[in-house]
Amino acid sequence: MRILCLTITQDDDGKENRRAPQKNHLSITGGRRRILELFLQQEGALSHSDIEKRAGEKFDRVTVYRTLQVFLEKGLIHSIPTADNSIRYALCKDDCSGGQHRDDHVHFICNTCGNTTCLEHVTVPEIMLPRGYVAEQVEMLVSGVCKNCNQ
Q1: Less packed terminus of the chain by CB within 10 Å, N or C?
Q2: Could you give the 3-state DSSP secondary structure of residue 89?
Q3: What span, in angstroms and rounded, lies between the C-alpha atoms of 4 and 94?
Q4: Which pLDDT belongs to residue 33?
């Protein structure tokens, strides 16, 4: 699991200044902090609507969308396309950075509960393409019954 440290300092007025690590160059607002907390609390991936429902505050769709886009750009989360053409998001591993996602693991979608999980220790096999073809992105999505539903 990726751990994001949040630096909290006080300026001369006693006002709190919150910021993420320098490598992310990301200012932390209340909304970003709440959405990041949702990802840290979640074992699997979240959809846009999951975030809206669980945030507990009145975040409008645009705020959630913009926050997700910033998190994607900064390498905090990665997107997971699903079989129904929706998108879910999950925390990136530590070796992702802005614009450089190292998303080489398998994603698992449970047909029973609907949860999407990153199987970080199961890597996508190397694909040998014919001459002249260049892969820009390889995604592997496996569906079935998760370990919790299979009990």
Answers
A1: C
A2: strand
A3: 10
A4: 87
How many angstroms separate the CA atoms of 144 and 52, rounded? Answer: 26
């994607």: which residue's tokens? 72
The CA distance from 13 to 52, in Å, is 34
Q: Where are the alpha helices (DSSP H) in 10-149?
A: 30-41, 48-54, 61-73
**Long-range contacts of residues 59-62, Cβ cutoff 8 Å, at least 24 apart:** 59/31, 59/34, 59/35
Kindly report, residue by residue over 77-130, the tens digit of the pLDDT. Answer: 888 887 777 888 888 765 555 555 556 778 898 999 888 888 878 888 888 999
**How far is residue 96's CA from residue 99's CA, in Å, rounded to a whole number?**
8
pLDDT for residue 17: 39
Neighbours of 19 (CB within 10 A): 15
Query: What are the E-state strand segments in the chain?
Result: 7-10, 16-19, 46-47, 77-81, 87-91, 105-110, 116-123, 141-144
Provide the total of helices (H) and of strands (E) in the chain, helices listed first: 3, 8
Burial class (CB in 10 A: 0-12, 13-18, 19+), 140: middle
Q: Of how many residues is the chain composed?
A: 151
Flag whether the pTM goes above 0.70: no
